């Protein structure tokens, strides 16, 4: 399993098997960002330090820019959408994608700091 696969599947960076989030549904608003304290498979600490995931803003931002660029080309160039409607559509789409973007931002952030260990102990 590659690091990219692990990020895309929202898996633990150490064992690449345990889930990063308690609930698979990002639109379960009450607990969509709840993460277990530790990986259920290898025991990796997901709460590395207080405020650790504030840094995930740095990884979420490029995701938002990529989506905005893609939508801009698609809606303005391909569909030739009127500018006022485009801004409304872009805002609405990005708002609806926020739970997913935040999750991927967190997944990328923890994968930057925690290395894969093929010998990670099974809990």
TrEMBL record:
Organism this protein belongs to: Dyadobacter pollutisoli
Protein name per Swiss-Prot or TrEMBL: DUF983 domain-containing protein
Pfam families: DUF983
Keyword Transmembrane helix: yes
Alphabetical UniProt keywords: Membrane, Transmembrane, Transmembrane helix
InterPro entries per record: DUF983 (IPR009325)
Transmembrane segments: 56-79, 85-102
């Amino acid at each position: 399993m590659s690091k990219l696969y692990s990020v895309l599947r929202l898996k633990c960076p150490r064992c690449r098997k345990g889930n990063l989030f308690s609930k698979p549904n990002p639109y379960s608003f009450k607990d969509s960002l709840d993460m277990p304290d530790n990986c259920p498979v290898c025991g990796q600490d997901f709460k590395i330090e207080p405020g650790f995931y504030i840094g995930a803003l740095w990884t979420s931002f490029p995701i938002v820019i990529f989506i905005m660029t893609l939508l801009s080309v698609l809606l303005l160039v391909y569909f030739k959408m009127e500018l006022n409607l485009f801004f409304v559509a872009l805002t609405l789409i990005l708002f609806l994608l926020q739970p997913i973007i935040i999750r991927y931002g967190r997944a990328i952030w923890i994968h930057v700091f925690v290395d894969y260990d093929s010998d990670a102990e099974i809990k």
